[in-house]
Automatic annotation (TrEMBL), chain A:
Residues 39-64, 105-116 have a biased composition (Low complexity). Its main location: nucleus. InterPro entries: CENP-T/H4_C (IPR035425), Histone-fold (IPR009072). Keywords: Chromosome, Nucleus. This is CENP-T/Histone H4 histone fold domain-containing protein. Residues 1-164, 284-325, 473-502 are annotated as: Disordered. The keyword Lipoprotein does not apply.
UniProtKB/TrEMBL annotation, chain B:
Belongs to the CENP-W/WIP1 family. The lineage of its organism: Eukaryota, Fungi, Dikarya, Ascomycota, Pezizomycotina. InterPro entries: CBFA_NFYB_domain, CENP-W/WIP1, Histone-fold. It comes from Xylaria grammica. It is found in: Chromosome, Centromere, Kinetochore; Nucleus. Residues 9-67 form the Transcription factor CBF/NF-Y/archaeal histone domain. Signal peptide: none annotated. The keyword Glycosyltransferase does not apply. Keywords: Centromere, Chromosome, Kinetochore, Nucleus. PANTHER family: CENTROMERE PROTEIN W. This is Transcription factor CBF/NF-Y/archaeal histone domain-containing protein. It comes from the Eukaryota.
Amino acid sequence: MANNDPNNPGPSRRGALAALSTPRMAATPNRQGIGGEPASGRPSASARRNNAAATPHARAAIRAMDQRRAALFTPGRARRRSLREQRETPRDLLRNLSRVLAPTSKLVSSSSSPDSSARDGDSTLPSFAEEDEGDDDDDFPIERPRFSLPLGPEEDDDDDLKPPRLSGFEEDNYTMQSIELPRARVIDNTIRSSLGSIRYSDYMGPDIRSDDAGIDSGFFPPATLDDSGEVIMEEPAIIERLDADEARRQTIGGDSVFGAIEIPDLGNESTFVMAPAQSPVRDPTITGGLAGLGSDNGPLYEVDDDDDDVNEPMDMPDFDIEDEPDNVAEDTAEDTAEDHISTIEETAQLRTAPLSRDRVIKRKKGKRISRHGIEYPSLPPNVVKRLATTFAKTAGSKGKISPDTLDAIMQATDWFFEQLGDDLSAYAQHAGRKTIDESDMITLMRRQRQTNASTTPFSLAQRHLPRELLQELRMPVPIPSKPPRKKSRHTVVEGEEQEEVT
Amino acid sequence: MAPGQKMYPRATVKKIVKAHSKCNVSKNVDVMIFLDYVLFMQTLVKEASIDSKQAGERNISAKSIRKVTPDALSKFKG
């Protein structure tokens, strides 16, 4: 009974089939009583198409037509595959529907065979098994009763045609799955290599301080990277982690700069703002505590400020050093009281508006700390913006770059330089040098596929750099660029000499 | 890149790379590094503009850049 409704959106042929079965319904009074209601509703709509799909061959022909139509709408290349998928999906959906609705619909099937009615009454689960069996075994015992029923026979007919497709589909599914896996792997590579380091840079910026207790801690983060990378190798976890990381990036990526900067602000404001703002805020938070993904330094600091009066003076003088104890305190605070954190986060959100000004101002000053514990400035945003606008114009857009976009580009810039620094240092150390040399940069660009036989670094520089810089490039380039590997060794030796000199 | 304007702060680039690599940076490498960065920006902005156009936006959005950044970075992974 319930099956009729879900079946309607499906191919209308079924309705036609129902019409076919209806006359037999009249012949068998007992079965009518059960299946009579749906049958009466159907024939009006289905009768129209009965004429077209009188024979199974006609149905098959109609199906083929529909498939061709579907093929027309499928996008380009892998038409046939996509067709199969399309064929699969609606039917699978319908099947799932029928199975889900089976317990209710079973009554109809049971009506066909009065013997099985006892089974139906027992439980829903056996009913499922009955359906499956019924699909396979329809030929002998069940056929007659189902013919009498309107809906049953239609599905059975479809099933008769299906089996070849099903086998094909299943195989296709497996292949498709096997194909999808390598995609995930590719993503992994990107993550491990570039993004892995990048993430840490993001976290490290704010977090390093917590880790900084010893400068040696700089060595630990890569190990964690390796671990994460290995874990990522395994299938499903990858996606989740990516998403989580991305989310963090978006929050922290933009905010990471702020996160570091926020600390002083909070310290400053904590004296003034904290007392009025927090007390009202906490009450609502307890009810609806949205533990934000970005439970970052900012909110936590506030907790510290609130709970520990001692920390407040600490925050004022030195940002970097003081952060470490704060973070530790934050961790403890997190463990102890979740409510406080949620409240604090909300308070932090409330305060973001006033903080944002200070963030912008302090961001310029703000220096970040690399993995090695060395402070470094970020590239001035006006330089980045100028580059971006020129390239945006060449790319065809208007060349306007919003501050948000600039932030994202600056983030990408920081990541890029960190990645580049890692690569260059790896090359230099592999060559036994402690100085990054031209040859390192040339090998790097070659590995990046930026330079090849046809494009030399000099030609690239000619295209992209002004002349003053070109002249300085011109001097060293000819030496390492052309000579094959023998001379590269010489350059290595020269590099060592330079080290000694410097 | 106005004529009188400096293309980029050389010392800053040098400091950045030095901090990340914990290595000294020899004399004119920063020019190459900046060249590489220019190429990176080119690909990044190009991809982002394509992405934002597909999304139906006129200008390059921060979202599209964030979306494209991993690809561009992996492309410039040595």
